[in-house]
Each structure stands twice: as C-alpha cells, then as structure tokens.
Amino acid sequence: MIHVKDGKRVRVMLTAFRDGLQSVFGGKVRTGDVLPALEAAVAAGAHHLEFGGGARYQAPFFYVGEDPFEAMDRMRAAAGPGVDLQILTRSVSGVTLASQRLDALELQAKLMAKHGTTVDRNFDFMNDVDNLVATGRPIVDAGMHHQLCVATMGLPYRSEAVHTPAYYVDVVRRVLESGVQVDSVCMKDASGTTDPTTVFETAKGLKRILPPDVPLWHHTHDTASMAVACYLAALEGGADGIDLSVRPLASGTSQPDVRSMAHALKGTGLELDLDVKRMAEVEALLTEGLEAYEFNPITLAADARVVDFPMPGGAIGPNVQMMKGAGILDRYSEVLAEFPIVVEAGGGWTSVTPGSQQYWLQAFNNVLHGRWKKIDAGYGRSVLGYFGRPPETPDPDVVRAAAEQLKLEPFDGDPLEKAADSLGPARAALREHGLAETDEHVFLVASALVPGKDVELNEGLRLLTGRARVNLPLKAVPEPEPEAETPAPSVAAPAATPAGPWPAPVVTTVTVEEGGVARSFRVTVAGPEDAARPAPARAGAPRAAAPAGPPPAPGFPYTPSTSPAATEVHSPFGGTVEVVAIRVKEGEAVVAGQVVAAVEAMKAQHDVRTPVAGTVARVHVRPGDEVRAGDAIVSVLPSGA
C-alpha cells in the first residue's frame, strides 16, 4: 500500500467543465449553466481546470448554438487570470475528426492561446511519434504549456508487443529525444481499461526517463470502476498529478469525484491540492445549473463490459444518445460485441478520438451491413495509414477491402502533408456568404468541413449565418392541461390583413426565458417558396390530396406527386436523422437499389436506396431537413405503373 513518510501534495486538474460535460452529455451544455460552479471551484482552491478542446470545442456550435471561442472567453473571465485552463487536442486532427494540414493546426494553437488556454494536452490515437513531435511544435510556438500524452488502454485481445509499459515508455522516450519542448507528460486512458499494474509500471518507467522538472500526470475514467485503484497505482509509481471531477459530472463514464479520491488517500501521507470540503458547494451549483438536463443512466453507471470494448467515457454517452435518436438503441449490445474484432483487425490503435469513433462506426457498420461490407471512411483511412502508423500491422484482408471501397492506396508518408486543405475552402465559403474572414470565422468553418457534405450544412457557417441547430439533452416538458372552454367575448372585427404569404422572409429576434435564464434567438419566418413547401408527412399520418389549381412552375423541387401508385422511400433508421444529400431530381429514371439520398446518423453518412425501379415523382425534402422513419424522402413511380 502506498505511503509517503514526509507527506506530498497531489496536483489536481478538475475535469468537470470539459470532460465531465463531454462524458455525461456529449458536451451539449450551455456555458452559462456551469459558470457559477466554475467560480465556486476556483474559490475552493482549484487552480487547474479543463475547459475546452475535445467535444467541448465542437458541441457548442454543432448542438448548443454557441461560439466555442466566446464560450472559452466566458470561462476564462469566470476563472480569473491566475488559473491554468487546459484544452485537449488530437495531434494531426487537432480539435476536429479529420487529419489537418500544419497551417490549420498552427491557426488552432494561435486561437486557443488567444482565448484563454495556458495548457494544451496533446495526444495521438496511433501513438505515432512523428505526429506527436510535429503537432507539439505549434503548441510551444503559441506560448502554451505543452503536455505530451501517451495514450493507453487495455487491449480486448492478447498482445505482448503493444500497450505494455515498455511500449508506452518507448513512445515518450522517442519524443523527448526529438528535441521538441515537453513541459509535462500525461498517461491518458480515455476508456478506463488499463489495469493498475500496467499503470504502476508505466509510471515508474516514465519517472526514470523524465527530467526532474517535468511533472507526470495520469488521466483515466471510472467506466470499469477501476479509476481510484489506477490513480493509487500511478501515485505509487511516482505520478505528480491526477484528473478528478465533481458530482453530478463524476464517476461512471467520467472521472472519480474529488471526495472519493481524498478518502482513498487517507493514511497515505498524500493529500489533494484543493479544499475538498468545499466540493459540496460546487456540486450544489452544478446540480442547480443542470437541473433542466436529462441525465442518461448509461453514462452514470459503471459497465464492466468496457474492458472488451474500450470506448472513451466521452464517446459512450454521445454514441448512446445518437443510437437512441436514430431509433436503433436495441442493437447497442451487438455493436459492443463487434468491438474486439475491429480493434484487432485495425492494428490496435488507442481508443481515443478520432480512433474511438472509427472503431465504433466500423463495429456499427459490421452489425448493420455485414462484417467488412461497408468500411467506414475514417476506419479505412486509418488502416491504410492516412492518420499515421498503427501500433500493429492491420489485417491484410481489411486493408484490401478499405483500399477497394474507398478507392485509396495504402500510404506510409506524413499525414500532415496528405491532409486536404481546409483553410482555403473555408475562406471561399465565408466570402460567398459575405462574412468577415477573421481567424475565428475561418477556423470555425474549416474545422467543420466534411468531405462530400454540402458546405451549406457546415456547422460553422450555420452558426455564423444564424442557422445553428440547438439540440440539448433537456428533460421533456409535460404538456399543459387543456383549459376549459369559455365563450369568447363579443369584440369588434379586426381590420383585414393581407391573405397569403408575404413577399420575402422576415427576420426577427425572440427572447426565451427558461429556469430564470433568458436567451435570445434570431428567427427567420419563411417567405412564399418555403411557406408553399409541404411539410414531410409523419408515419401513420394521412396524406393530403394534391391541391387543385394550376401546377407549380416547372423545376420547382417540391411539387406534389399526383399518382397514388408512387412508392415512398424512407430513411433506414427508426429515429430522427438529418438529410445531407439528395442524389436525384424529379422526373429522373432510377433503377432498384440506386442511391437516391444520404442521411447522417452516428456522425457518418448512410445511403438511402430506392427499392423499386421507375421515375422520381417527387422530392419531399432538401438537405438539412430532419426526417423520421415514416417520412418520405422521395417518391418513385414504379416502371409500368
């Protein structure tokens, strides 16, 4: 049992305001809802907080309708100038899910430092040393503290070559030998699956090679109920700091609560470097601020199965929520069972973003379409070498399948040089929309670019043009009881108002107050074209008859079909998904099995195919619309009908 004779203060990085929000809610939380708790944490002596990066960069403008840089500014103002604020970055992917060029990563580092970041924890899901060196330099050049990560996990299959203490120590040693400045080192276990013995031996090995002035941190999750044991092992091995959270954003898929760890350290001579007794105040403010949010039981509970499907705590919650939204949560266990297959076949890269999402999507595709019948683009690019070198050699059959399906050759060069330009297209999109080309605007659009996705659906552009989607995990509000009908008073008839739609869209501002918090939204009231467009019919709802009168002008894409024999083509998912592409036009001939549209589910595009051959009679929706299982996307008049 660990015991320090002379006593030692253990450094704490408080994760509630980044990883806690991500692990429990996928980061989909309004910044203002947690600011009072952040201020209380600083008052309680917390001087090192995680506040950005990871999903808390993307979630604000993907789902909350907030500018992530403005959110960081608000958190810096609440924390004050003397507190270290830390972000999490993903090596060649930065804060995105795709590999980036060096110029984009340099802009990212510049902006993160500008908006309050003092510490950048940088990891590579491949543990590719060349990637870690190349992406560490912009962090140093921007003036931030460079915390080098070695990403760890417990393999769901047996290997003596990788994910061992010797392997992890060698990764760090090679980065140190490169000459890049390293201010601290972190053992980062995003899935909480590394066993305590491996943690202890890795910490001992790293302390032997680290300069005395370079602190060693350990980060893990409590998903498998091993976090406190692993933190004790890390501290016994010589670690200087650990990551902790506070209820209700602690334990389960998140980090242990400060108070749990403080209790585990009793009698050891170690104590945490913040006021543990004041954590109840932080908890109370978090509970109050998050009162309107629906906590998902899966993210709050430990799950021993994670040792066989090493998924990060910050990914389990969002993936469960996405599966629930898409109406396929009943297949969750099947996806988990496929995990060991895709991990071993891919080469055993670490289950941290974006690698964890690639594992998840490939396991999902294997369940939905058959094993290796549809290679996820990210997973395929990883086995082919476009994110760096996997720790072990991927399965040759899977490599061949990826090359054939993605039409890419295997690659062993520098991922930074092979990455697509993102800044150029972002600037072009801003110019096209008449938006200022500030560094922040450019990066918002660039970081949300997805190959093959209509730029009009880019979340950065949506935010900047007032079209951001808000999708918060809030509790359902019960319908109000209907009031008893009372006779209407006799009043004079109002003045006549013009009938029909107004000549152009009207933009106005509305203020909504919820839980004492007022928020303003810009609302566009549709003009005649959108007003005339029929809403997608819902499952089980009667179809309206075709309107009488002259037909709409030729080429208008939302004209109703007049044939009752038309076959409706629906989303393959049982829940709500977004239409991201329409591949056909009205009047176009199609063959059975042809792709007519694409929808986005689980952060990936999925084809929608017509079951019959014929002619497209009607296109019911357009890119950006959300549809449910019973909503018609297109209608096809079968051949011969």
Task: Give the strand content.
Answer: 15-25%
User: Taking Cα atoms only, what radius of gyration do you get, to the nearest Å?
Assistant: 26 Å
Please give the number of β-strands.
Answer: 19
How many helical stretches? 22
Main beta sheet: 9 strands, parallel
Give the CATH H-level superfamily of the domain at 8-300.
Aldolase class I
Estimate the helix proportion, in percent: 25-40%
Alpha-beta classification? alpha/beta
The CATH topology annotation of the domain at 8-300 reads as TIM Barrel
The top-level CATH class of the domain at 8-300 is: Alpha Beta
Q: What is the approximate shape?
A: globular
Give the end-to-end Cα distance, rounded to a whole number of Å. 79 Å
Strand order of the largest sheet: 2-3-4-5-6-7-8-1-9
Low-confidence stretches: 488-509, 515-562
CATH architecture of the domain at 8-300: Alpha-Beta Barrel
Overall average pLDDT: 84
Protein architecture, described:
The structure is a single chain. With 641 residues, this protein is α/β, with parallel strands linked by helices. Among the domains are: 8-300, Alpha-Beta Barrel (TIM Barrel); 420-463, no CATH class; 560-638, Beta Barrel (OB fold (Dihydrolipoamide Acetyltransferase, E2P)). 35% of the residues lie in helices and 16% in strands. The strands form 4 sheets. Strands 2-3-4-5-6-7-8-1-9 form a 9-stranded parallel beta sheet. The protein has a 4-stranded antiparallel beta sheet with strand order 12-19-17-14, with no helix packed on it. It has a 4-stranded antiparallel beta sheet with strand order 16-15-13-18. The N and C termini lie far apart (79 Å).
